[in-house]
Every structure is written in structure tokens, then in C-alpha cells.
Design goal:
Distance between the termini: 90 Å
Strand order of the largest sheet: 1-3-2
Radius of gyration: 38 Å
Oligomer: single chain
Low-confidence stretches: none
Number of strands: 3
Order of helices and strands: HEHHEE
């Protein structure tokens, strides 16, 4: 038995010879001849390789979203450092700030090996990008304070 590729055409193909007549096709009427336009059939060809032109809309209305309860937002490392410096009132190194933040429960490192280096970099980046509007000011090597 050999397999042959199916060819699609505009006219309906003949049924396979299985011994049974297909139950879904209507018998041909004498009014339909080759000179007239072909009649539409109830069969629908499968659609392949089509491109959607827009979002598919769902006829069901969506339920309104419930507002989330206002939970206390955790501070980031740089925000916690600003809070520690405000409470301390004196210049601190990044290592001292990290220890104070952990002791007061403002922020703890999520497992990084050098959180003081990350904080140092974040403070310098804020000073460089915001300039005079930055929250931090470098007082001496490795020490920072809040701007007034």
C-alpha cells in the first residue's frame, strides 16, 4: 500500500471506496450542473497558518479586581541606610550601616556575601545621578551622612 499526498481542489472530492456511502453529504440534484456556479456545501475547510488581527474577546464580563490590602512595604537597602543615618546623626561606614539595619530589623541581606559593597555602590550611584538632590553626602573615605 502506498501513501499519496492529498490534493485539495475547489470541487468536493469523491468519497473513499469503503463500501459505505457517507451519511453527511446530500445527494446531487439534477438542477446542479457544471455550467452553473457550484453550490455551497455544509463542510468547512480547516483554517491553517492564519494570523490574528486583534485580541480575541471573551463574551463573559471580567470580575473587578479587588484592591490589595495596604501591607507595610519593606525597605530597600538604600532606604534603610537613609533611615539609619537619620536616626544616628553621625557619619557611618557602609559596614556599620548594614549592622545597624540588621539590628533594628529594617533590612537584612538576602544571602549576598558583600552587602556593604552593594550598599556603597548604590549610595555612590545615587550621588552621581541626583547630584545636589541626593540624600547622601560623602564626608570622608568610606563614610557617608545625610544631606541637610
Amino acid at each position: 500500500m502506498t501513501s499519496k499526498a492529498k490534493k485539495t481542489s475547489a470541487t468536493p472530492s469523491s468519497p473513499k471506496k469503503s463500501g459505505k456511502a457517507p451519511a453527511t453529504k446530500a445527494p446531487k440534484t439534477p438542477a446542479a450542473t457544471s455550467e452553473q456556479e457550484p453550490q455551497a456545501t455544509a463542510e468547512v475547510a480547516p483554517v491553517a497558518n492564519t494570523v490574528a488581527t486583534g485580541p480575541i474577546s471573551d463574551p463573559r464580563p471580567k470580575a473587578p479586581k479587588k484592591p490589595k490590602p495596604a501591607a507595610e512595604k519593606k525597605l530597600g537597602a538604600i532606604d534603610a541606610a537613609a533611615k539609619v543615618l537619620a536616626e544616628g546623626g553621625q557619619p557611618m561606614t557602609c559596614k556599620e550601616m548594614i549592622e545597624a539595619m540588621a539590628a533594628k530589623g529594617y533590612w537584612t541581606s538576602p544571602g549576598g556575601k558583600t552587602p556593604q559593597a552593594t550598599l556603597y555602590s548604590a549610595i555612590l550611584r545615587e550621588i552621581a545621578t541626583k547630584g545636589g538632590k541626593a540624600r547622601f553626602k560623602k564626608t570622608e573615605r568610606g563614610k557617608f551622612t545625610l544631606t541637610s
